[in-house]
């Protein structure tokens, strides 16, 4: 068991966005070793079918298991919405998604039960957030909105560009007219637009980033299974992608509080 405690946690996303979840895991669980995989060759997942998202998730889990991970965090809302249930049933280590933690945080924060969800097309179409929120609070009203352009804007480094303000307005102006008092950033890239979105909605709307609660869930699961790495030493982090390793390294350096030395590229179709 002692040896298993030191095994890494596997974290994956369709690309760089999941680093916002990895960052939170590193902050809350500094002793954990982390193996991160970003599927940069096949991003975006938000426009893909359920079958493909399940296939991709299975391949990534097979890859992460070659690194002897003790648990897996699906740091991608789209994969959490469409593949989590399936892969959880097939995997004998804990697999955690971001939807349940995000929904739980929103239900805790809302006063009037009116919750907005911004996400990819696939996440919003799946209505997974709506189902989980309603299970936790049956009288909740959930308003979803797909915001697909947010992803390339973030990836192209346009988070602070004035054009992003316009796109936020185009996607979210209708939501702003509703009674929502809480909004979930239901896509890993959106927390990188958080300050803009907070400014757009003003004080009346509480913005939820599921990453924080996801890291807490991971901690609880590892504790329960006796797998928490309580080492005093800061964990080791390694990064893998399916394409464009250099671009990922550069981007990761802007999200994580330290410089990423190297990212390795693998052929995920082999798994
Ligand atoms: N990582 C995805 C998510 O959180 C967003 C990007 C994509 O469409 O792949 O849903």
UniProtKB/TrEMBL annotation:
Q: Where is the active site?
A: 76, 187
EC class of the enzyme, as a word: isomerase
Protein name stated in the entry: Glutamate racemase
Give the Gene Ontology MF terms in alphabetical order: glutamate racemase activity
Q: What is the lineage of its organism?
A: Bacteria, Bacillati, Bacillota, Clostridia, Lachnospirales
Arranged from A to Z, the UniProt key words for this protein are: Cell shape, Cell wall biogenesis/degradation, Isomerase, Peptidoglycan synthesis
Its BP terms in the Gene Ontology are: cell wall organization; peptidoglycan biosynthetic process; regulation of cell shape
The entry's family comment says:
Belongs to the aspartate/glutamate racemases family.
